[in-house]
Amino acid sequence: MEFDELDVVALAADLPAEGLKAGAVGTIVDIFRDPELAYEVEFTDDDGATLSLTTLTPEQVRPA
């Protein structure tokens, strides 16, 4: 499944280096297509502060 900018997605697996667990919800803020498809996803806390801004492959995200 391909996502669009500003889509809300969930993390498919833990990302220990980012302190994120599978199921964490984030927003796609950018999409890269070259050299291959990837998503820049922002994860925030309940107050809207950024917890992580990371680039993920399509396999690392799923619909929220």
TrEMBL record:
InterPro entries, per the entry: DUF4926
The domain of life for this entry's organism is Bacteria
This protein is called DUF4926 domain-containing protein
What organism is recorded for this protein?
Winogradskya consettensis
Task: Write the lineage as a comma-separated list.
Answer: Bacteria, Bacillati, Actinomycetota, Actinomycetes, Micromonosporales
